Amino acid sequence: MATTRRTRFSRRIPDHVTDEIVNVMKGNDEFLPFNGLFESVYENLKEKNAVSGGEEMLRLRAYEKLQNLVTRGLVEKEGRKYRGTDRIHEASSEYLAAQAEKLQQKAAS
Prior knowledge:
This protein is mainly alpha-helical. Helices cover 53% and strands 9% of the residues. β2 and β3 (81-84) form a beta hairpin.
């Protein structure tokens, strides 16, 4: 009997880094270089007191999250510059929570 293995780790808590990337890209229609994007994300996270692990670690996490968004088709990449697509909001924690709630309501009925 074959069993499916989950090879991906899924966090259930809000992802502040991805949320800030979404917030920065949502209001911008032009391509942004990674360094400019990271500076905006870093400043927003510092204001919310959500920075942990140091700036370099946060830079690595932000780059990894950005590459995941590119892979999912939520962000366009042109050289070393990035721009959010119309679907960028789908990466936010609020959107994911709303989708999970819809699934729970569907399953309950």
